[in-house]
Each structure stands twice: as C-alpha cells, then as structure tokens.
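LOG
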Amino acid sequence: MTFLQSNQEFISSLFRHNPAIPRLEPSEVTPAREEVFTQRGFSEAGIHPYLVKGLAEAGIERMTAVQVSEAEGKVRMTRVELAPP
C-alpha cells in the first residue's frame, strides 16, 4: 500500500525489516517491429473445416506466428507491448 507523507512516498508493509526499494531510472526501450500474421492459413493447421469457415467469415484467415508454432508443436516465448510508448 502506498501513502504520500510530507511530499515523500511511503510504502506500508505487513512485514518488518524490509530491504530498501531501489529507485530505477527509466531506460530507453526500442520496440521490436515484427509481422504478427504469417502467410499460413488455418486450413493448413488441420483444424475442422467449420472452424476455418467461421474464422474466415469473421475476417480471420491467416495464422499468427504463435499459432503456427503451436500447430507445429513448438514451444515459443512471446513478448508483448503492453502500452504504447
């Protein structure tokens, strides 16, 4: 829980003898620019034709890189931009 006390931030804790929380300076981050969608379609993934049809009707025809990895049985680490810079 955070409180402001005489223009300083004070963090309340249920535990004693907490270590000091270091202040970290923001660093410059260069966002990665990657293609989200591949050229691979859902019909190539071996899923039911009704699902492929439903996705196409919703305007979703190409798989993402994560979906391709999953379809191939690969484990993939993914990074996501949580907020615009």
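LOG (cont.) second protein
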Amino acid sequence: MNKSEKYTSSRYARKWKKTTIGKKLSSFMNKDFVDVDEIIYKENKSRPGEIIEKHGEDYFRNLETLVLERVLMKQGKIIATGGGLVVRDEKPRPH
C-alpha cells in the first residue's frame, strides 16, 4: 500500500467517528471502552500527529502497536484504534 492509500485509509477512519461510535457501542454492550490514541496521549503528552511530526510515522506505528498489544491482553473491551493500524503489515497480538 502506498502512502496515498495509507493517508486515505486514516482519513476515512477519522471521519467514521470511531471514539463516538465506540463509546456508544461499549455502553450498549456494557463493556469498557479503550481508545489507543488516548492512551498514547496520556503516556507521551503528545497527540499522534505531534509524535509523527517529531519522530516519524514508523516510530508512531511501533508505539501504537505496543499500546494495542497491552490492551489486547485484557478481554472484553471495545477498542478504538488509529486508522493506520489496519493497513500495517505487522498485526499486533496479545502476549
């Protein structure tokens, strides 16, 4: 997948309002909601775009993968991920 396609995928993910839908779904299903981008922000004091600008996209995607792997260790959660995660060749898995 080229950079243009990755950007397009990420852009559409943002338009889908993943956090809004995720919160509604978690409420409906009585499950906890987790937003990977929010965890990254809390742990790094920077938004994803800021991290990408400062360290590059590969750095951010690796960070995103590590956070998601931690989240996946806990069952029964509704998880919002960044749009670029789904186009990454390496898929996170729980340990």
